[in-house]
Amino acid sequence: MTFQISCAFDGGNINVENADRVDDIRLSIRPDNASDFYQWFYYRLTGAKGQDCRMVLINAANAAFTGGWDDYRAVASYDREHWFRVDTTAYENGQLIINHTPEQDSVYYAYFAPYSLERHADLIADCLQYDGVSLRVLGMSVQGQSIDCLTIGEGTKNIWVIARQHPGETMAEWWMEGFLARLLDEDDEVAAALRKVVTFHIVPNMNPDGSKLGNLRTNYSGANLNREWGVATLEASPEVLHTIAAMDADKPALVLDVHGDESLPYNFIAGAEGIPGYTDKQAKDLADFLAAYKRASSDFQTEHGYGLNAPGTANLTMCTNFTAHRYDCLAMTLEMPFKDNINAPDAVQGWSPERCTQLGSAVLDAMQEVTEQL
Predict the structure, then answer these.
(1) Domain-terminating residue out of 77, 110, 143
(2) Beta strand pairing status for 84-85 and 95-100?
């Protein structure tokens, strides 16, 4: 059987440059549809069962974050449920080389475990089967897809949690699954207590257009949504414009923006220390949340992360900085690795969907500890 490579499906991304031999398949990652960003890939190989395949991503040198290739291993799956790491040659000579011998006639490879729009639709539908959960569409994306926002809880304090401003950071929506599953667990005392004092506004996917297109970082119009806060337009970035309008109506006490980081092999949080007028209360709220999250999850740490912005120098077009400044609230960016958690490596799966969901579940303990002081 002749082997084939395809990516004509939700979130797919690859260009086939040469596929004459299984031991020298030449591929390139397609840039985001309206920008130069690229690093996300997701494709299917068929007809190569039992053959030693060598797949070369020839344009890795110009990817958005080349540091993301160091000590990186691609993920693969036969059933699109269980994803495992495969041998990936350390980035060298401008190429990334994936070596794998498929055990079945069809195998999928990706930068990280994909999270499809169909799964997103199932997530929304499942949540709506619980009492006390409502859905509102904040607005439409550039391509006319819904920006779904779940509302959960009956308290006077508003907590906003958003994910996938950058569509290729699929770990963010896996994290959402764990967060939502525990928040809706009727037998969980922490979740029940939070639902009484908090109203949660949850946007599991801020960028459905980019998700479907297989983009790494931008929406359909080429906008990096996490550089559109305060400058968003209906034409270029309605996803952000509509979300800000909703936040204005339900002012946040806490905002958590969930992401993935290509280069750093850690789970960490970036705060808003560099905004103008950053207060002692915001600093204390952040410190208390970080300590609580670290206690709640052994996968979360505070030793490694981004450097702090000097006072008054923060980029206010980023969600965390914009919301901390506009609403005088605790605002944070959670980052998870595309690689592995170097503090607790998993030789088979690396950082995985399952561990993302566990980290998402654990955040409720941290939220409970700081809610009263917000």
Answers:
(1) 110
(2) unpaired
In this structure, what token pair is assigned to residue 104? Answer: 């079945």
DSSP element (H, E) containing 188 = none
Sole residue written with tokens 């699109």:
80
335 is catalytic: yes
Range of the domain at 350: 117-371
187-199 b/e with 16+ CB inside 10 Å = b?
ebebbeebbebbb
CATH of the domain at 302: 3.40.630.10
Instruction: Judge if 143 and 186 occupy the same domain.
Output: yes
CA–CA distance, 346 with 362 (Å, rounded to integer): 19
Residue in 17, 169, 335, 372 annotated catalytic: 335
Which alpha helices (H) appear in 184-279, and where do they start and end?
A: 189-197, 208-213, 238-249
Tell me if the pTM is above 0.90.
yes
CB contact set of 353 (below 8 Å; sequence gap of 6+): 83, 113, 171, 174, 177
| Axis-axis angle for helices 353-371, 280-296 (nearest 10) | 130
Predicted pLDDT at 255:
99
Residue type for 51, please?
Q
Total number of domains in the chain = 2
Nearest Cα to 332, choosing from 218, 154, 148, 163?
Answer: 163
> How many Å apart are CA 230 and CA 270, to the nearest integer?
19
DSSP assignment of 21-63: -GGGEEEEPPPPTTSS-----EEEEES-TTS-EEEEETTGGGS
Intervals of the chain under pLDDT 50: none
Q: Residue 94: what pLDDT?
A: 87
Q: Helical H runs in the chain?
A: 117-127, 171-183, 189-197, 208-213, 238-249, 280-296, 319-327, 353-371
Q: Which of 89, 110, 131 is the last residue of a domain?
A: 110
